[in-house]
Design a protein that fits this description.
The protein is mainly α. It has one domain (about 1-180). The chain contains five helices and no strands. Helix 1 runs antiparallel to helix 2, helix 1 packs antiparallel against helix 4 (about 125-170) and helix 3 (about 85-120) packs antiparallel against helix 4.
Length: about 180
C-alpha cells in the first residue's frame, strides 16, 4: 500500500501544481480566444484534481477501516492481547483520519471558490488563497498518512508473524504452508 499511496499522492501533488500553473497563466492573459482555451484546461485540471483528492483520501479511510477490522478480527480469533497491535491500528486510524478529512474539505472549498470566481461573484484572491492552502494541507496530510500506512504495514506483518507462531504452537501449518495446499 505504501507504493500505491506514494504514487497517488505524487499524482495529486503534480495535478495541484499543474492546475495552479494554468490558473496563473490564464490570469496573465488578455481575454481572448486563447485565454478561453487555457482557462478550460485550468477548469478541467481543477475538476480532475478535486476528484483525485477525494479519491486518495477516501482510499486512506477505506484502508484503515479494512485493515483495522482485519487486525481486530484476527486478534479475537487468536486471542491476541489488545496491546500493542490492535490498539496501534486504532491509533493510526485516529491519526490519519483528521488530516485526510481536512484535505478533502479544503479541496471542496477550493473548487467551490473556483466556481464563485468563474461566475465573477467572488474575488480571485479567495480561490487563490484556498488553492495554496489545499496544496499545503495535502502535503501535510500526505506526510502523516504515509507514516501511518508504513507503520500499519509493520503491524500487519507482526500480526501475521504472531499468528504463525500460535499456529506452530498448536501444530498447525503456517499461513504460507496452508496457502500452498489450496
Amino acid at each position: 500500500m505504501t507504493r500505491i499511496f506514494t504514487t497517488l499522492a505524487a499524482v495529486v501533488t503534480l495535478s495541484l501544481l499543474a492546475t495552479m500553473a494554468f490558473g496563473f497563466w490564464s490570469m496573465a492573459l488578455d481575454k481572448d480566444a486563447f485565454y478561453k482555451d487555457i482557462y478550460l484546461v485550468h477548469f478541467c485540471l481543477g475538476l480532475f484534481t478535486a476528484i483525485a483528492i477525494l479519491l486518495v483520501h477516501s482510499i486512506i479511510f477505506t484502508y484503515f477501516l479494512g485493515t483495522g477490522r482485519w487486525v481486530k478480527e484476527v486478534g479475537i480469533a487468536y486471542r491476541l492481547p489488545d496491546e500493542p497491535l490492535p490498539k496501534l491500528t486504532r491509533e493510526l486510524k485516529r491519526t490519519a483520519f483528521p488530516p485526510a478529512l481536512f484535505s478533502m474539505l479544503i479541496g471542496i472549498a477550493t473548487a467551490a471558490a473556483g466556481a464563485g470566481r468563474q461566475l465573477e461573484e467572488w474575488h480571485w484572491g479567495i480561490h487563490l488563497t484556498l488553492a495554496l492552502l489545499t496544496l499545503a494541507v495535502n502535503l501535510w496530510a500526505f506526510r502523516i498518512e504515509y507514516r501511518c500506512v508504513s507503520t500499519n504495514a509493520g503491524v500487519i506483518d507482526a500480526v501475521l508473524a504472531e499468528v504463525d507462531r500460535i499456529r506452530a504452537e498448536r501444530g498447525l501449518l503456517t499461513n504460507a504452508e496452508a496457502l500452498k495446499q489450496v
